[in-house]
Task: inverse folding
């Protein structure tokens, strides 16, 4: 075994996987998480961190386009694993591990993947290179010391000359015999007339506005720039538009929350959902459709507790919630009861969680009435976490649960709920709510 192969085998043991859950394929995603733990693989937070892109389910047209864009962002060596069901997870990861060791495959992928297009010259700039003026032709003149190519200044000593702007200096005569330049300003070439350039002003390129390319609306790599907007004090402030989802760790599958930010505060938001399957599915359970309909309620509650704890940085507690979820999913009541008891004790005693979640999206009775929310949403994120864990503990213990209204939080009210929150707390707020299932999953549930 060569050194390269040996290093590659060690690298595969630390593989990172970016998980994409097609709405409704919760069982494949949960099985994938279990398999990653057994292999010692880790979930990736961003495409740049990932070695493997694992797609749980067959996405519809809208989500498929997003997945392709994610795939383009993965650095090589990279592998894509398409997982159609929970039973296919193990074999898909085995194939991914084998492909990660296939050097020929990665060489071919590197040759075939589309390269980033070179930035074309703006036709309005006439091919001029504005990086230091090196590429600009000033009619053979040598501006030694000013970076302008051919116009030669013979003065060995500029004395107290201020090179901060070239203010008012006229270069129509290429021979400068004056021994004393006085207080001339040379920095930026403001107002400098270069003869053969027809009076073109190169003070920061004079009349040509190249700051941000003359007001041109630029969106590098598709990332929108900030716009002006009025803040709460009536003053103008930059507004940045930031979409959250649909592919984020510990985020509801299929949800896209588009936030408008002033500073770090959400001043406006809009929620939408991406498709959960193809249009040609017959009964909602075929290719592209949800794999097994809505998940059991207790499993969903545990899964949302996992997300909230992980986002709050309580990794040990999140692992305990994950054990309770997996035990409930596989019908192991004894293990589920023990895990739920430990989880309940951990959360009740954790000062860190109390400090992290207190004050996140507090909802008063008037807020519940205004938005039509169930009673269990009362309080802040920590209160809602305790309500969930108490119910999980009761259900895992086999006792008759206390009657609780089962109404879910509609996705449509999310924009109103997150408006006014700081960006850092938005994901915690969303994870603390019992959102209704994705519309595609609801259709299957009714069928």
Result:
């Amino acid at each position: 075994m060569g050194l390269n192969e040996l290093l590659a085998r060690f690298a595969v043991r630390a593989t990172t996987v970016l998980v994409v859950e097609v709405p409704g394929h919760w069982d494949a995603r949960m099985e994938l998480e279990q398999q990653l733990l057994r292999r010692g693989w880790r979930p990736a937070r961003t495409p740049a961190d990932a070695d493997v892109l694992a797609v749980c389910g067959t996405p519809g047209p809208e989500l498929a386009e997003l997945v392709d864009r994610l795939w383009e962002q993965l650095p090589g060596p990279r592998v894509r694993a398409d997982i159609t069901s929970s039973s296919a997870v193990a074999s898909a990861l085995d194939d991914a591990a084998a492909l990660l060791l296939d050097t020929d495959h990665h060489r071919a992928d590197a040759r075939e993947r589309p390269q980033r297009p070179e930035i074309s010259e703006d036709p309005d700039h006439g091919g001029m290179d504005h990086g230091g003026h090196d590429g600009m032709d000033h009619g053979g003149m040598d501006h030694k010391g000013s970076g302008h190519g051919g116009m030669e200044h013979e003065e060995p000593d500029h004395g107290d000359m201020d090179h901060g702007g070239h203010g008012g200096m006229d270069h129509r005569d290429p021979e400068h015999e004056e021994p004393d330049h006085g207080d001339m300003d040379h920095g930026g070439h403001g107002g400098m007339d270069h003869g053969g350039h027809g009076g073109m002003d190169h003070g920061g390129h004079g009349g040509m506005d190249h700051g941000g390319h003359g007001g041109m609306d630029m969106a590098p790599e598709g990332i929108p720039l900030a716009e002006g907007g009025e803040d709460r004090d009536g003053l103008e402030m930059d507004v940045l538009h930031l979409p959250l989802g649909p592919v984020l760790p510990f985020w509801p599958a299929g949800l896209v929350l588009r936030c408008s930010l002033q500073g770090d505060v959400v001043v406006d938001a809009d929620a939408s959902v991406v498709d959960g399957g193809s249009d040609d599915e017959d009964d909602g359970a075929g290719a592209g459709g949800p794999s097994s309909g809505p998940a059991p309620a207790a499993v969903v509650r545990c899964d949302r507790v996992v997300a909230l704890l992980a986002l709050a940085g309580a990794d040990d507690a999140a692992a305990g919630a994950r054990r309770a979820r997996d035990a409930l999913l596989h019908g192991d009541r004894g293990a589920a009861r023990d895990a739920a008891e430990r989880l309940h004790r951990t959360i009740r005693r954790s000062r860190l969680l109390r400090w992290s979640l207190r004050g996140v999206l507090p909802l008063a009775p008037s807020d519940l009435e205004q938005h039509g929310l169930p009673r269990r949403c009362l309080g802040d994120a920590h209160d809602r976490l305790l309500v969930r864990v108490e119910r999980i503990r009761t259900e895992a213990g086999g006792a008759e649960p206390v009657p609780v209204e089962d109404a879910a939080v509609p996705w449509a009210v999310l924009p109103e709920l997150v408006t006014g929150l700081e960006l850092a707390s938005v994901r915690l707020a969303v994870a603390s709510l019992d959102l209704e299932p994705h519309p595609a999953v609801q259709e299957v549930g009714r069928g």
Remarks:
- Residues 255-446 form one domain.
- The first helix runs from residue 3 to 12.
- Strands lie at 16-21, 42-43, 52-56, 79-83, 227-230, 236-244, 255-262, 265-273.
